[in-house]
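Lab notebook, bench 4. Still working through the backlog of constructs that have no structural model yet. Next entry is a single chain of 243 residues. Request: give me the structure tokens for it.
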Amino acid sequence: MRIGLQIPSFSWPGSFLAGHTRRARLGTLVTGVTYRHPGVLVKVASTLDVLSGGRAWLGIGAAWFEREHRGLGVPFPPLAERFERLEETLRIAKQMWLGDASAFRGRHYELAETLCVPRPLQRPHPPILIGGQGERKTLRLVARYADACNLFAFVGPEVLRQKLDVLRRHCDAEGRDFASIHRTALGSANLTPGKQSAKDVIRQCETLASLGFQELIVNLPNVEDPAALGTFAKEIIPAVREL
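Model written out:
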């Protein structure tokens, strides 16, 4: 099993990390579909893949933070429309990454030419991760378009087991191999004295691994603390690697 840190990685942070790392995978967890035009978003992910030598992921979801949208002046469509936009964006990404520069005409987006030059290094394309765990729409889109899913670890083992069962049924309906989807969860590792210990985080990974998850991605609230980073690197990563 893998465990990783959630840190900013698109735009200039992603470019910086691409130039200063050799193995770290880079992407968003996750960008809301409302924040960037699909063509621009796919170009950003493609450029990051080239800059990083083929380490970019596209993490995307239907968006949820209405306050941020209103505060920044970003339109916040109704939920049903956001999911329509998400599916169109996924279709656009697949078309651009296939090298098909023909027009795309959807209900919400029209692209005269789906140009993507240079193309990303990864083949057939950078992995697509869809965040969220809605059973009717999100997990169906995972089965149809994505290479990975991201569920919320805090909902507990029974709910997570149910979500994976739903995803498996969507895969069956789409003719998709459930095992081909990289299963990740989002959690927290608050390695502050009196909060969480390394053993707490390792136990969480053990539970997730027993459910069929392959990776836990965590927020590290005190990521600037060398002691917390040292605990993460020296105690947690080696133990989780063996799961």
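Notes after review: The chain is about 45% helix and 15% strand. Strands lie at 2-5, 31-32, 58-61, 104-105, 110-111, 128-131, 148-152, 182-188, 215-219. Flag for follow-up if needed.
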